[in-house]
Specification:
Layout lengths: L11 H27 L11
Keywords: Membrane, Transmembrane, Transmembrane helix
């Protein structure tokens, strides 16, 4: 009877770690897209020479 109330595994820690990992991944992808969009466009180099 007591063994029915015994939790074999607590999923809370795993769910929190997966959520943090997903948040970090989304943040890194956002930073990467931001760098790609804000990069300077390469113009003609004939004017510089």
């Amino acid at each position: 009877m007591i063994s029915q109330n015994l939790a074999l595994y607590n999923w809370n820690n795993g769910v929190i770690m997966i959520a943090i990992f997903a948040l970090v991944c989304i943040t890194l992808v956002g930073i990467l897209v931001n760098f790609m969009m804000s990069g300077k466009k390469k113009e003609d180099t004939d004017e510089d020479q």
